[in-house]
Amino acid sequence: MICTTYFLTFFSELIPPTGMKMKRPILLLLFAAMFLPSVAKTWQLTNKDLQVTFDDTTGLFCVYDVRNGKKWMQNPSAEPVEVKKVRQEKNSLEISLKAGFSFTAHVSLREDSGLEFVISASKGTPLKEFSYPESFHTVDKDYYLLSTDGEGMLLPVDDQEYPLGGGITYTYNYGGGLSMAWMGMTDKQFRSGYMTILETPFDAALRTKRQADGLITFAPVWLSSLEEFGYDRKVTYHFFNEGGYVAQCKKYREYIWPKNQVKTLKENLKRFPTIDNMVGAPHIYVWDTGRDLDFAKELKKSGIDKALLIWNANHTPYPMVGYDDELRKLGYGSGGYELFSDLHKRDTVYYEHDWNGPLRYRHTSYPGLFNKLAARKKDGSTYSNRFGTYACPANMAPQILNRTGREMKEYRHDTYFVDVYLANGLYECYNKQHPVTREGYAKAIVSNLKLLEDTYGVYNGGEWGAEFGLAHTFYVHGMMTLQRTWWTSGINDKGTIYYAGDWKNNSRPTAMLGVRTAPDVYLKYSINEALRVPLYELVYHDAVVTSWRWEDSNHHNPELWWKKDLFNVLYGTAPLWNMDRSCWDDFKKTFILSYKNVCPWLQKVAYDELLSHTFITADGKIQLSTFASGNSVVVNFSDTDYDYEGKTVKRRSYLAFGNHK
Ligand SMILES: [Zn+2]
Question: What does CATH list as the number for 6-259?
Fold first, then answer.
């Protein structure tokens, strides 16, 4: 009942004080009046927690949460949606709608209180994209958007700077996509709120936008499948009275693990025992003089007991043949960087490459195979970014085996770090030899990852960490870095103290081996302890090890090294280092100290579920994480010591508790 009386008030509240801005709400009211069905009615779905009301005059839903008295009212649509017919059966509505094309929304309030929308239309309906259902109105600034465009962030709904938009699933490009197929809203006391789960995630987005009053909200957007509506789309909302972002992450975990067949690292250890060398260890990309076996031996002697060393065969010099076997003798993990995504224009014709020379395992050489391998758009053009043209994963298996088969004879890796696949998004391919939808593209990527597992007994790592690959990917590099404020933070300003370096020097790329200063936007978001939250870890910590991005590794901003290490401690994630001998010589003491600070702790919790994360102080300076083994950690980001339950947590440090309640 509370919602039904709310609609008119809501519309009048929307009318802002200036004359110009009044146009839209008035127009919308006019549209609503034009489409008034013959018998106007409000329809209700109810259970003990929620009263969901649908007003067939406005076409809008309102959710009243009985537990806390909060009302979640949909914003009016930018495009009019005409309600043609409504039918109710128990706690479900079947709503016939028209918004450019006719579709039906099957809306159910489920037993578990999930409010489910299944959207049906004729399969062949031509489509670019459409948004339904509409966003919920953010009532005031006492909320955070739970941003899942990476590890996670609390975006204040009145924030004016963070770049919005995008929200396409499983890509960090194009305006910031989602690593997981959900987003949420929580109050600033971390109790009530709601979350939205895209249950058909592959042609979909959750798009963030600012309401007329400037506050942030978000709505599902459905992309076409091969330019058509294609198939039923499904999105589910859950409303929360308690638990804030932790409860939302746990709800998602419950849903997504069985759906994507995600297993724990511990379960995967049975098949891939060398996972244990990677868990609780720094992940280290080695370059140039860092590829000598003596260098690895020196790390070991210096007290770096565990480490995963990875090298990239696009860069010389290569380590000694048999390097991986020697690393295993040291108890280290051995990894090869891989890349099966990029084609170059030179591949359109045949050319000679020295397959026995110093770059004999170069990743991006497919002489004469460009046309065979490229993913094609409908008009025949290709997809590309500054690194190359995308090879369609549905046709790459023979090339993958060809490349890795040769390399594995000299370098028997424990793991392949497969770059790009879990970061670069999903693309439709119209190449007649290997056509795929976005979902097909994702499945082909997963199949290629599985091929590596089954052929060599290796386990895989990935870039960033789009969740569709996590059944076959056990560590991901870059999830800790907030992509959107990393790439826009001034790191491309050559000649400045912020410049992130480049790849020009093949053996010693400064992008990996240089140091830099953090720009303001990076400080404001990426490394801001008051806004960052481990959403991805709360869902996946015991299934996948995450780290900072390689150009954003723990030591790249030396003045922030301590802070990045503390985030690793708090989230139970791995340090990411890039090293050659000179880098080690310059910072040897700090590397050793960093290892001793972070890794013994990680080894205690690395296989655990992250049960909870809490802000102890409102400014975010003191935070607590609790893991399934009973180990907890209180982290102090501040410049003064902190008394926590009678124990001192030193400044810029942490205190670990066993079996802490
Ligand atoms: Zn294809």
Answer: 2.70.98
